Recover the amino acids of this structure.
């Protein structure tokens, strides 16, 4: 089976963890990754170059109806929700969910819908509970789910919410998440 | 909100619901982008405390009020005055010089919702000395939203955000000149409304109804699928005067649309495009 998409969601303090994860992905990594980070409006212009400087794979900002290409890292723009449809991103400006736009829940949920077993969701450090429900839906549909260990999280709220929602398939510290994704998505001959 | 236990069955039910709404009420959501529409349908299930999409179809077809609530759920987004302030800076610097000398300026605001962004443009045009000779056409699919826009009454508590946006958008006056505060509400001054025409208009059935110098269609087509987007792009292109300006949302693209070659980029970041003469 080929995985279609990995989504990584986080808020407060997640950039440091993201750095660790992305550094572990080799330039040959094929499965596209979308990064959803809660932040103030207008900061995506800063985030993409910042992520690029820590990552061997090309980083791109998402545009509406943009094709999801293999071997790329995508950044969810601030003030938009990101949904997926067959092979493309679709944006929405519906009301924030859990005070968040982009909302991790909304992306996870649409991945559950469209990709099911071919989707991977990751929740990193962050306050609040965004991501837990969507991740539960993803897991219910056979997707793989990974949650950062609450003990390693600067803000354990989101990881804890995901674990108590029964959404966490794997609970891992930051340095093990990247290698786990590499191993999981390795295509066997 | 959870995903359906039987996704294929849910897909079928959604198709039947949309077909039923179209045939009975004339609202055509059949070419809306699926992911976002499904989310809103699930929200409707929650709000109506209904379990299946088929049961929602029953409720909507037999109860106009349920249809109205569904329409609100599908069409309502939260907006603000001078939302995306950078756009207004770009309009002041790049668009105004192009239209300043027109004897009569026509602006079409597509999907104007509750009108905040229409009044923002009216304020900008007033400050540029152009409001007098401008007609702003504000259209939306949802009549109840248009009624709110026409009224021009917004919560006073939101005015702090709006004022901040106004200043970031290049405003130089006292924003309070443009509304009257009464209790907890802000009422837009009547003179700002004089040149605005509010009209219900469905882009899907869409016919062109005038020729415009500026068309704002921001974050409207993100809810449409590719084929409907293409149809709407044709409508907008045909509704623009040669040299007229199209404003899209900042994450929308003209790439791969049928009229990509018919425009030149005026502001890459703010997605302002000028129709070639």
């Amino acid at each position: 089976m080929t995985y279609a998409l990995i989504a990584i969601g986080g808020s407060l303090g997640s950039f440091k963890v993201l750095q660790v994860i992305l550094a572990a992905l080799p330039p040959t990594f094929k499965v596209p990754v979308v990064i959803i980070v809660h932040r103030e409006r207008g900061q995506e212009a800063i985030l993409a170059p910042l992520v690029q400087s820590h990552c061997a794979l090309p980083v791109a900002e998402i545009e509406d109806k943009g094709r999801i290409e293999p071997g790329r890292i995508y950044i969810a723009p601030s003030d938009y929700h990101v949904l997926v449809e067959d092979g493309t991103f679709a944006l929405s400006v519906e009301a924030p969910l859990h005070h968040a736009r982009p909302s991790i829940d909304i992306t996870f949920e649409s991945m559950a819908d469209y990709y099911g077993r071919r989707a991977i969701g990751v929740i990193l450090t962050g306050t609040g509970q965004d991501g837990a429900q969507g991740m539960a839906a993803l897991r219910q549909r056979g997707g793989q789910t990974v949650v950062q260990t609450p003990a390693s999280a600067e803000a354990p709220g989101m990881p804890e919410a995901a674990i108590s929602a029964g959404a966490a398939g794997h609970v891992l510290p930051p340095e093990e998440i990247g290698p786990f994704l590499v191993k999981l998505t390795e295509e066997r001959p | 909100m959870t995903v359906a236990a039987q996704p294929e069955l849910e897909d079928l039910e959604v198709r039947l619901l949309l077909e039923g709404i179209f045939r009975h009420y004339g609202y055509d959501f059949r070419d809306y982008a699926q992911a976002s529409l499904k989310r809103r349908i699930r929200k409707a299930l929650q709000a109506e405390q209904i379990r299946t999409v088929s049961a929602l179809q029953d409720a909507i077809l037999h109860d106009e009020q349920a249809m109205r609530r569904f329409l609100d759920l599908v069409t309502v987004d939260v907006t603000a005055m001078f939302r995306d302030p950078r756009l207004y800076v770009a309009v002041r610097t790049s668009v105004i010089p192009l239209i300043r000398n027109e004897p009569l300026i026509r602006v079409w605001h597509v999907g104007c919702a509750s009108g905040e962004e229409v009044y923002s443009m009216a304020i900008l045009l007033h400050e540029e000395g152009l409001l007098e000779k401008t007609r702003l056409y504000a259209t939306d699919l949802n009549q109840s939203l248009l009624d709110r826009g026409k009224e021009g009454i917004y919560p006073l508590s939101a005015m702090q955000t709006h004022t901040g946006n106004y200043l970031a958008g290049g405003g130089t006056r006292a924003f309070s000149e443009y509304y009257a505060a009464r209790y907890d509400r802000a009422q837009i001054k009547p003179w700002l409304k004089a040149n605005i025409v509010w009209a219900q208009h469905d882009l899907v059935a869409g016919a062109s109804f005038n020729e415009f110098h500026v068309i704002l269609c921001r974050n409207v087509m993100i809810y449409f699928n590719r084929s409907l987007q293409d149809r709407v792009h044709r409508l907008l292109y045909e509704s623009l005067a040669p040299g007229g300006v199209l404003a899209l949302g900042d994450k929308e693209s003209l790439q791969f649309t049928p009229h990509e070659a018919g425009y030149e980029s005026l502001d890459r970041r703010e997605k302002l495009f000028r129709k070639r003469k």
